[in-house]
Design brief:
Protein name: NERD domain-containing protein
Strand order of the largest sheet: 1-2-3-7-9
Strand content: 15-25%
Number of strands: 9
InterPro entries: NERD
Structural class: alpha/beta
Amino acid sequence: MWLEIICGIIIYQLFRRFFYGGNDVLDVETSDFNAIFSVANRLEKLCGGKVYVGLNIPDADTGSRKGIDIVLVTKGEAAVISVKNVSGFVSINDDGSWTSEGGRSHRKERIPDPVAEAKNTASVLESYLEQRGVTLPEGYFSYKVIIPNPNFREIYRNFPPEVITYDQWVQLEPEPKGMISGWVKGAFRGGKKEMQDSFHQQLNFILSTAPMWDRFVI
């Protein structure tokens, strides 16, 4: 019996390596914290630039702080990334919220609209940067929701383009010489003109000195 189990695991790993090229993605369920760092490390390989993890930005509207999983900054653009370590069968409700069944908790769970949440987070970050003297080009920040959990199963496949499901996530490949591949360009709104070095340096300086959960910059 154990021999059959071991053979099954080996065949599964070979299958994943053949179809997904052995990418640095989650193979088993992990904590939300580890999932964020796994996504951050892979984004750096895919897109280059700098990845900031765990920003804790003041929100002027609520008087509290807004936690941001990841901010990706490249020469031409930036993206606010929300990592949802969701498992089980997931569907989208009429109000944009998600319902997960059969996940880690083995209970039916309702998740507030992750896309609306990511959009709001990007808005809070933009306001914070403007308060610190950064004039952002219109539409400079995009926002994405990444689902890195291999046990995620989408129902009806009606997820909006801002959501990168697990199947899409594992298929992303870096372009040679650090260029962003066509699919990644589509996922992260690539193709914009590179910003001036002074703007890029200012943005990275402010993000590197912004409040964080901890002093981690990938």
